[in-house]
Amino acid sequence: MFENSTERKTREREMKAAGRLPPGQALTLKWPVLHEGTVPEFDPAIWNFEISGLVEKPVRLTWADFTSLPMRPVTADMHCVTRWSRFDNRWEGVPFTEVAKLAGIKPAARYVMVHAEQGYTSNVPLADLLRPQTLFALRHDGAALSPEHGFPLRLVVPHLYAWKSVKWVRGIEFLAADAPGFWESNGYHIYGDPFKEQRMTAD
Questions:
Q1: Residue ranges of the chain with per-residue pLDDT less than 70
Q2: What are residue 137's phi and psi, to 5 degrees?
Q3: What pLDDT was estimated at residue 202?
Q4: CB of 67 within 8 A of CB of 138?
Q5: Which CATH architecture has domain 38-72+92-196?
Q6: Where are the alpha helices (DSSP H) in 78-199?
Q7: Nearest 5 degrees, angle CA 189-CA 190-CA 191?
Q8: CB 93 within 8 A of CB 137
Q9: Of 50, 171, 61, 168, nearest in space to 113 by CA
Q10: pTM for this one?
Q11: Do the strands 48-53 and 169-175 form a parallel or antiparallel pair, or are they unpaired?
């Protein structure tokens, strides 16, 4: 914990000099809770994860299926559209590539619609999801995800604003063309690059 605002500002300058603090962002040590809707309950007996769209074979995974997939750790920064940045988050989960290969992506697929609880969606280009740091996280900073931060499963796309790191994920749909998800249909930028301050559609 920083002892005073001077230490915080010094750390912010260090992160900016290192190219890790996007413009318009401020460092936080906390992990603010922001989401649409209520926190859903989790029942491993009925939970499933669906892979659909432009794939060779649609797939439905149970919780036991999903948690048996290979996992790895990733350390990455997180930048929220509400202007806070949290550095060196330690995630552990299943790489996106491990999940996607189960269904076989068709060549025409260029985008992915991420589906979550309560009908929430967010769109991400496939190329961004195939990056090595993108994963479906089950753990954060050495502990299981808390319910308000996406337990049991959260997509993590570190190089985009955190609304793309969808909580309570239940599936991915491969698409040929881009289409807006929930926040993108409500004025947020279709892509969301924090270093270009792509917060809203007009940015």
A1: 1-4, 202-203
A2: -85, 140
A3: 67
A4: yes
A5: Alpha-Beta Complex (3.90)
A6: 96-100, 126-129
A7: 90
A8: yes
A9: 171
A10: 0.92
A11: parallel
